[in-house]
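Hi L.,

You mentioned the student needs an example of a multi-chain input paired with its predicted structure. This one should do, with 255 residues in total across all chains.
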Amino acid sequence: MRGLMGKTAVVTGSGAGIGQAAAIRLAEEGCRLGIFDWNADSAAATVETIRAAGGEAIAVKLDVREEAQVEAGYKRVLEAFGKVDIVCSNAAIFSGARDRAVDELPKDVWDEMVGVNLTGMYLTCKHGIRAIKATAGKGAVVLTGSPTGMSGCTPANVAYGSSKGGVHALSRVMAVDHAKDGIRVNVVVPGFTLTQIVRELVADPKVYEWQINQIPLRRGAEPHEVAGAIAFMASDDASYMTGSFMFVDGGLTAI
Ligand SMILES: NC(=O)c1ccc[n+]([C@@H]2O[C@H](COP(=O)([O-])OP(=O)(O)OC[C@H]3O[C@@H](n4cnc5c(N)ncnc54)[C@H](O)[C@@H]3O)[C@@H](O)[C@H]2O)c1
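Structure written out for the whole complex:
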Protein backbone atom coordinates (compact mmCIF):
# COMPACT_ATOMS: atom_id res chain seq x y z
CA MET A 1 0.00 0.00 0.00
CA ARG A 2 1.22 3.50 -0.74
CA GLY A 3 2.45 5.93 1.89
CA LEU A 4 2.95 3.65 4.90
CA MET A 5 6.72 3.17 4.71
CA GLY A 6 8.48 5.13 7.46
CA LYS A 7 5.28 6.19 9.22
CA THR A 8 4.64 5.83 12.94
CA ALA A 9 1.35 4.24 13.94
CA VAL A 10 -0.31 3.73 17.30
CA VAL A 11 -2.83 0.90 17.63
CA THR A 12 -4.87 0.50 20.81
CA GLY A 13 -5.92 -2.97 21.87
CA SER A 14 -3.07 -4.38 19.78
CA GLY A 15 -2.16 -7.12 22.23
CA ALA A 16 -4.79 -9.40 20.69
CA GLY A 17 -7.32 -9.93 17.94
CA ILE A 18 -7.98 -7.36 15.23
CA GLY A 19 -5.69 -4.74 16.79
CA GLN A 20 -2.78 -7.16 16.92
CA ALA A 21 -3.34 -8.19 13.29
CA ALA A 22 -3.55 -4.51 12.26
CA ALA A 23 -0.31 -3.67 14.07
CA ILE A 24 1.49 -6.60 12.44
CA ARG A 25 0.15 -5.63 9.00
CA LEU A 26 1.17 -1.98 9.43
CA ALA A 27 4.65 -3.12 10.50
CA GLU A 28 4.85 -5.32 7.38
CA GLU A 29 3.99 -2.21 5.35
CA GLY A 30 6.95 -0.34 6.90
CA CYS A 31 5.41 1.47 9.89
CA ARG A 32 6.95 1.76 13.34
CA LEU A 33 4.41 0.78 15.97
CA GLY A 34 3.21 1.93 19.37
CA ILE A 35 1.43 -1.09 20.84
CA PHE A 36 -1.09 0.21 23.42
CA ASP A 37 -2.86 -2.39 25.56
CA TRP A 38 -3.80 -2.85 29.20
CA ASN A 39 -2.46 -6.39 29.07
CA ALA A 40 1.32 -5.93 29.31
CA ASP A 41 2.14 -9.54 28.41
CA SER A 42 0.10 -9.59 25.23
CA ALA A 43 1.41 -6.14 24.19
CA ALA A 44 4.95 -7.46 24.69
CA ALA A 45 4.11 -10.53 22.59
CA THR A 46 2.93 -8.34 19.68
CA VAL A 47 6.14 -6.29 19.92
CA GLU A 48 8.15 -9.50 19.90
CA THR A 49 6.37 -10.73 16.74
CA ILE A 50 7.01 -7.41 14.96
CA ARG A 51 10.67 -7.28 16.00
CA ALA A 52 11.23 -10.93 15.02
CA ALA A 53 10.11 -9.99 11.50
CA GLY A 54 12.56 -7.06 11.42
CA GLY A 55 10.14 -4.29 12.38
CA GLU A 56 10.23 -1.65 15.11
CA ALA A 57 7.70 -1.44 17.93
CA ILE A 58 7.34 -0.47 21.57
CA ALA A 59 4.77 -1.72 24.07
CA VAL A 60 2.86 0.67 26.33
CA LYS A 61 0.68 -0.71 29.09
CA LEU A 62 -2.29 1.59 29.57
CA ASP A 63 -6.02 1.72 30.11
CA VAL A 64 -7.63 3.77 27.32
CA ARG A 65 -10.15 5.15 29.85
CA GLU A 66 -7.39 6.94 31.76
CA GLU A 67 -6.49 10.27 30.17
CA ALA A 68 -3.12 10.69 31.89
CA GLN A 69 -2.08 7.19 30.79
CA VAL A 70 -3.11 7.79 27.18
CA GLU A 71 -1.27 11.13 27.09
CA ALA A 72 1.84 9.51 28.60
CA GLY A 73 1.58 6.66 26.06
CA TYR A 74 1.87 9.06 23.12
CA LYS A 75 4.78 10.77 24.89
CA ARG A 76 6.59 7.40 25.00
CA VAL A 77 5.97 6.91 21.27
CA LEU A 78 7.29 10.39 20.49
CA GLU A 79 10.41 9.74 22.58
CA ALA A 80 11.00 6.47 20.72
CA PHE A 81 10.07 7.43 17.15
CA GLY A 82 9.83 11.25 17.05
CA LYS A 83 6.37 11.54 15.50
CA VAL A 84 2.89 10.08 15.13
CA ASP A 85 1.29 9.79 11.66
CA ILE A 86 -1.44 7.17 12.17
CA VAL A 87 -3.81 6.39 15.03
CA CYS A 88 -5.88 3.20 15.05
CA SER A 89 -8.40 3.46 17.85
CA ASN A 90 -9.45 -0.13 18.27
CA ALA A 91 -9.54 -1.27 21.93
CA ALA A 92 -12.97 -2.30 23.15
CA ILE A 93 -14.71 -4.81 25.38
CA PHE A 94 -17.78 -6.93 24.73
CA SER A 95 -19.81 -9.02 27.13
CA GLY A 96 -22.64 -11.13 25.80
CA ALA A 97 -23.23 -12.41 29.35
CA ARG A 98 -23.44 -9.08 31.21
CA ASP A 99 -24.90 -6.81 28.52
CA ARG A 100 -28.73 -6.85 28.45
CA ALA A 101 -31.95 -5.38 27.11
CA VAL A 102 -32.29 -1.84 28.45
CA ASP A 103 -34.86 -2.66 31.17
CA GLU A 104 -32.47 -5.17 32.73
CA LEU A 105 -29.13 -3.51 32.09
CA PRO A 106 -27.14 -2.69 35.27
CA LYS A 107 -25.65 0.81 35.21
CA ASP A 108 -22.17 -0.41 36.09
CA VAL A 109 -22.13 -2.57 32.92
CA TRP A 110 -23.27 0.44 30.86
CA ASP A 111 -20.58 2.65 32.46
CA GLU A 112 -17.81 0.11 31.89
CA MET A 113 -18.71 -0.59 28.26
CA VAL A 114 -19.21 3.07 27.32
CA GLY A 115 -16.10 3.96 29.33
CA VAL A 116 -13.76 1.65 27.41
CA ASN A 117 -15.45 1.62 24.00
CA LEU A 118 -16.46 5.28 23.59
CA THR A 119 -14.61 7.40 26.18
CA GLY A 120 -11.49 5.34 25.45
CA MET A 121 -11.74 6.14 21.74
CA TYR A 122 -12.38 9.83 22.47
CA LEU A 123 -9.20 9.97 24.59
CA THR A 124 -7.17 7.96 22.06
CA CYS A 125 -8.23 10.33 19.27
CA LYS A 126 -7.91 13.48 21.38
CA HIS A 127 -4.27 12.89 22.26
CA GLY A 128 -3.51 11.09 19.00
CA ILE A 129 -4.69 14.00 16.86
CA ARG A 130 -2.75 16.41 19.10
CA ALA A 131 0.38 14.27 18.57
CA ILE A 132 -0.15 14.12 14.78
CA LYS A 133 -0.65 17.90 14.59
CA ALA A 134 2.42 18.58 16.73
CA THR A 135 4.74 16.23 14.83
CA ALA A 136 3.83 14.66 11.43
CA GLY A 137 1.49 17.59 10.73
CA LYS A 138 -1.01 15.47 8.81
CA GLY A 139 -2.12 11.86 9.02
CA ALA A 140 -4.90 9.34 9.37
CA VAL A 141 -7.16 8.05 12.12
CA VAL A 142 -8.94 4.72 11.78
CA LEU A 143 -11.56 3.68 14.33
CA THR A 144 -12.90 0.15 14.69
CA GLY A 145 -16.68 0.28 14.62
CA SER A 146 -19.31 -2.44 14.62
CA PRO A 147 -22.52 -3.41 12.80
CA THR A 148 -24.14 -3.19 16.26
CA GLY A 149 -23.61 0.57 16.12
CA MET A 150 -26.02 0.71 13.17
CA SER A 151 -28.56 -2.05 13.65
CA GLY A 152 -29.98 -4.29 16.34
CA CYS A 153 -28.17 -7.31 14.89
CA THR A 154 -27.00 -8.45 18.33
CA PRO A 155 -30.16 -8.38 20.46
CA ALA A 156 -29.90 -7.37 24.14
CA ASN A 157 -26.49 -5.77 23.74
CA VAL A 158 -27.62 -2.26 24.53
CA ALA A 159 -24.40 -1.02 26.15
CA TYR A 160 -22.07 -2.38 23.46
CA GLY A 161 -24.27 -1.28 20.55
CA SER A 162 -24.74 2.19 22.02
CA SER A 163 -21.01 2.60 22.61
CA LYS A 164 -20.32 1.66 18.98
CA GLY A 165 -23.05 3.99 17.68
CA GLY A 166 -21.24 6.72 19.61
CA VAL A 167 -17.95 5.76 17.97
CA HIS A 168 -19.52 6.08 14.53
CA ALA A 169 -20.85 9.56 15.33
CA LEU A 170 -17.54 10.60 16.92
CA SER A 171 -15.70 9.60 13.75
CA ARG A 172 -17.88 11.65 11.42
CA VAL A 173 -17.63 14.82 13.48
CA MET A 174 -13.85 14.38 13.79
CA ALA A 175 -13.60 13.80 10.02
CA VAL A 176 -15.27 17.15 9.32
CA ASP A 177 -13.34 19.01 12.05
CA HIS A 178 -9.90 17.79 11.00
CA ALA A 179 -10.16 17.70 7.20
CA LYS A 180 -8.67 21.20 7.20
CA ASP A 181 -5.69 19.86 9.18
CA GLY A 182 -4.97 17.15 6.59
CA ILE A 183 -6.10 14.43 8.98
CA ARG A 184 -8.47 11.83 7.54
CA VAL A 185 -10.80 9.93 9.89
CA ASN A 186 -12.51 6.71 8.85
CA VAL A 187 -14.19 3.68 10.39
CA VAL A 188 -13.60 0.03 9.59
CA VAL A 189 -16.66 -2.02 10.52
CA PRO A 190 -15.78 -5.67 11.12
CA GLY A 191 -18.47 -8.31 11.14
CA PHE A 192 -18.20 -11.63 12.97
CA THR A 193 -14.41 -11.94 13.36
CA LEU A 194 -12.73 -15.05 14.72
CA THR A 195 -10.48 -13.61 17.40
CA GLN A 196 -9.45 -15.82 20.32
CA ILE A 197 -12.32 -14.63 22.53
CA VAL A 198 -14.91 -15.00 19.78
CA ARG A 199 -13.64 -18.51 18.96
CA GLU A 200 -14.23 -19.48 22.60
CA LEU A 201 -17.73 -17.95 22.55
CA VAL A 202 -18.73 -19.96 19.47
CA ALA A 203 -16.94 -23.18 20.40
CA ASP A 204 -20.33 -24.91 20.40
CA PRO A 205 -20.96 -25.79 16.71
CA LYS A 206 -24.67 -24.91 17.09
CA VAL A 207 -23.79 -21.37 18.18
CA TYR A 208 -21.29 -21.04 15.33
CA GLU A 209 -23.88 -22.28 12.81
CA TRP A 210 -26.43 -19.75 14.09
CA GLN A 211 -23.89 -16.97 13.64
CA ILE A 212 -22.76 -17.86 10.14
CA ASN A 213 -26.29 -18.48 8.91
CA GLN A 214 -26.81 -14.69 9.18
CA ILE A 215 -23.76 -13.99 6.99
CA PRO A 216 -24.00 -14.20 3.18
CA LEU A 217 -20.38 -15.45 2.89
CA ARG A 218 -21.29 -18.17 5.46
CA ARG A 219 -18.12 -17.84 7.53
CA GLY A 220 -16.45 -15.58 10.06
CA ALA A 221 -13.54 -13.28 9.15
CA GLU A 222 -9.96 -13.96 10.11
CA PRO A 223 -8.44 -10.96 11.97
CA HIS A 224 -5.95 -10.36 9.13
CA GLU A 225 -8.86 -9.78 6.72
CA VAL A 226 -9.99 -6.82 8.85
CA ALA A 227 -6.39 -5.69 9.35
CA GLY A 228 -5.97 -5.24 5.59
CA ALA A 229 -8.88 -2.78 5.56
CA ILE A 230 -7.43 -0.85 8.52
CA ALA A 231 -4.04 -0.59 6.78
CA PHE A 232 -5.76 0.55 3.57
CA MET A 233 -7.69 3.30 5.41
CA ALA A 234 -4.43 4.46 7.02
CA SER A 235 -2.56 4.46 3.69
CA ASP A 236 -2.36 7.02 0.87
CA ASP A 237 -4.43 4.63 -1.25
CA ALA A 238 -7.38 6.00 0.76
CA SER A 239 -6.28 9.63 0.27
CA TYR A 240 -9.76 10.85 -0.79
CA MET A 241 -11.62 8.97 1.94
CA THR A 242 -12.69 10.67 5.13
CA GLY A 243 -15.81 10.32 7.24
CA SER A 244 -16.53 6.98 5.62
CA PHE A 245 -17.30 3.45 6.75
CA MET A 246 -15.72 0.35 5.29
CA PHE A 247 -17.70 -2.82 6.00
CA VAL A 248 -15.65 -5.99 6.34
CA ASP A 249 -18.55 -8.19 7.34
CA GLY A 250 -19.10 -10.92 4.74
CA GLY A 251 -22.30 -9.16 3.70
CA LEU A 252 -23.94 -9.18 7.16
CA THR A 253 -25.18 -5.58 6.91
CA ALA A 254 -26.23 -5.99 3.27
CA ILE A 255 -29.19 -8.17 4.26
N1 LIG B 1 -14.31 -9.76 16.94
C1 LIG B 1 -15.47 -9.35 16.40
O1 LIG B 1 -16.29 -10.17 15.96
C2 LIG B 1 -15.76 -7.87 16.27
C3 LIG B 1 -16.89 -7.48 15.54
C4 LIG B 1 -17.18 -6.12 15.38
C5 LIG B 1 -16.34 -5.19 15.95
N2 LIG B 1 -15.26 -5.58 16.68
C6 LIG B 1 -14.40 -4.52 17.24
O2 LIG B 1 -13.06 -4.78 16.89
C7 LIG B 1 -12.20 -4.23 17.89
C8 LIG B 1 -11.23 -5.29 18.35
O3 LIG B 1 -11.97 -6.38 18.87
P1 LIG B 1 -11.35 -7.83 19.02
O4 LIG B 1 -12.43 -8.77 18.69
O5 LIG B 1 -10.06 -7.90 18.30
O6 LIG B 1 -11.11 -7.87 20.61
P2 LIG B 1 -10.07 -8.70 21.50
O7 LIG B 1 -10.75 -8.88 22.81
O8 LIG B 1 -9.56 -9.89 20.77
O9 LIG B 1 -8.86 -7.67 21.68
C9 LIG B 1 -9.07 -6.46 22.33
C10 LIG B 1 -7.77 -5.96 22.89
O10 LIG B 1 -8.04 -4.71 23.53
C11 LIG B 1 -7.43 -4.70 24.82
N3 LIG B 1 -8.20 -3.81 25.72
C12 LIG B 1 -9.47 -3.97 26.13
N4 LIG B 1 -9.82 -2.97 26.95
C13 LIG B 1 -8.75 -2.15 27.03
C14 LIG B 1 -8.51 -0.94 27.75
N5 LIG B 1 -9.44 -0.41 28.56
N6 LIG B 1 -7.32 -0.34 27.59
C15 LIG B 1 -6.36 -0.89 26.80
N7 LIG B 1 -6.53 -2.04 26.12
C16 LIG B 1 -7.72 -2.66 26.24
C17 LIG B 1 -7.44 -6.15 25.28
O11 LIG B 1 -6.45 -6.41 26.27
C18 LIG B 1 -7.17 -6.88 23.95
O12 LIG B 1 -5.78 -7.06 23.74
C19 LIG B 1 -13.11 -3.70 18.99
O13 LIG B 1 -13.31 -2.31 18.80
C20 LIG B 1 -14.41 -4.46 18.76
O14 LIG B 1 -15.51 -3.75 19.27
C21 LIG B 1 -14.94 -6.90 16.86
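You could point out the following to them. The longest strand covers residues 183-190. The helical segments are 17-28, 40-52, 67-81, 107-134, 158-178, 196-201, 205-212, 223-234.

Best wishes,
N.
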